[in-house]
Design goal:
Length: 240
Amino acid sequence: MRSKILGVGFDNLTMEEAKQQFLGLLHTDEPSLVVTPNPEMVMLARKNAEFRDLLNSADLVVPDGVGVVHASRLTKNSLKQRVAGFDLLMEVFAIDEAKRVKWYFLGGKSGIAEKAKIQMEQRFGLQVVGCGDGYFKDDEAVIAEISSSGADIVLVGLGFPRQELWANTYKHRLGAKIVMGVGGSFDVMSGELKRAPKIFQKIGMEWLYRLLRQPKRIWRQRVLLKFAIIVIIRKIRGVL
């Protein structure tokens, strides 16, 4: 049973349950799509039916934003906890099975995926069989490279909605079992961008930390406010 927030359904899982479900996708017959919507993505999905349908058809949908979890508490099917995409990956990387499969990192600025590859190989002993930046123009060349690499899991960091649309469009041609949109995770994995301190993470205020570090993000925070207002109004009207 998925918990629906403004038309987007989320799998109601703990981090441990999400981790096990993620690994279970390695043993399915068809390639799987993993998405991690936050309030910004939910707001886009409200006005973009194609993107909304894509999110709802994904094989694993976990709430990346704490705002989504708070909103779910106003429904009859409250989400158990936030399952941030980056945190989910760190949990999965630490499992022995993750070290036995092959990974491909696609996205970010030039050189970022390569740095992320080195860091994750050293930290977790992963087998990262290839990587590329997010500024490619030839989809066919990238598809050919990934499919020839033998990757089992492809992480796509192209920013939403491009990464989800790209992953969903080509997942059957990559030869991988799992394709997952990861946003700016490679920036953090590579060490180019620092994660918010634990205290900010614990109280669900990572967005504030990022805003303090990057004031230009203020326009993006307006979307979070709009998301909260819409959720509250719909709750009052009894249609959430």
